[in-house]
Amino acid sequence: MEQQNLSVKIKRIFSDYLRESNLTDMMYTYLVLKKTNPSEIFTASTYPVAWQDIYLSNSYQFIDPVVLIAMNRITSFSWAECFSLTERANLTKVFTQSAKQGITGGYTFVLHDHCDNLAMLSFLLPPGDESREINIIENKSNIFQFLVDTHAYYLDITSNKKDSSFDKPLFSAREHEVFYWASKGKTNVEIGCMLGITLSTVKFHLRNICKKLGVTNSKHAIRLGIELNLIISP
């Protein structure tokens, strides 16, 4: 409920800004996720509600090409830059699903803060409507400053709330160990011998890792772990 109330407050701030900036017809999403635990996510959005539900319920932030690009850059970008990432079959799922909701293109502003969060402000761009993207590009400095100010407000509000779950690590210590050695090419049997655990326990931890990342196999989990910098040395 607290997140919902905060989302409403931030959407009011956006409404005022977009009206003053002559961008009232733009659909947007302000998204914040913890880089050390991307399962912790906050959004304030005017995207279609059906798509918001699909995105959050499936934890698409783990495989969203827009998020993966934003993780590794500090400048704004058009979603057209994402399509090279979608060569991997599992990543096309996000764009395929979003297209069914009329979401096919956009432009994203990126902010990495001192609390290890990634903040993103994305605007939808309908196909063939170049004027909106031109408008955004011409006002990049102003929009980015607005993102900074809005995110400062978000941090001020959330820093006063003691939510122990927010800083809870994504993986347990044992899962980190298993994930690390799996990423180094060790087999399940080798990992079990190195850590002094049974083969079934290794498989159990790998299943949990895959489940938390929203993927179906350990190879995909390792690729995502590398992309999101989630694999750490034990």
Describe the structure.
- This protein has 234 residues and is of the alpha+beta class.
- The protein has two domains: 2-158, Beta-Lactamase, CATH 3.30.450.80; 173-227, Arc Repressor Mutant, subunit A, CATH 1.10.10.
- The chain is built from ten helices and five strands; from the N terminus they run αββααβαββαααααα.
- The protein has a five-stranded antiparallel sheet with strand order 2-1-5-4-3, with helices on both faces.
- β4 and β5 (117-124) form a beta hairpin.
- α8 (188-195) packs across α9.
- The radius of gyration is 19 Å and the shape is elongated.
- The protein starts with a helix and ends in a 7-residue tail after the last helix.
The CATH architecture assignment of the largest domain turns out to be 2-Layer Sandwich
Tally of contiguous helical segments = 10
Describe the main β-sheet briefly.
5 strands, antiparallel
Low-confidence stretches: none
What is the CATH top level name of the largest domain?
Alpha Beta
In CATH, the topology of the largest domain is named Beta-Lactamase
SSE succession: HEEHHEHEEHHHHHH
Number of domains: 2
Number of strands: 5
Distance between the termini: 36 Å
Structural class: alpha+beta
Strand order of the largest sheet: 2-1-5-4-3
Global geometry = elongated
Annotated CATH homologous superfamily of the largest domain: Transcription factor LuxR-like, autoinducer-binding domain
Strand content: 5-15%
Helix proportion: 40-55%
What's the gyration radius in Å? 19 Å
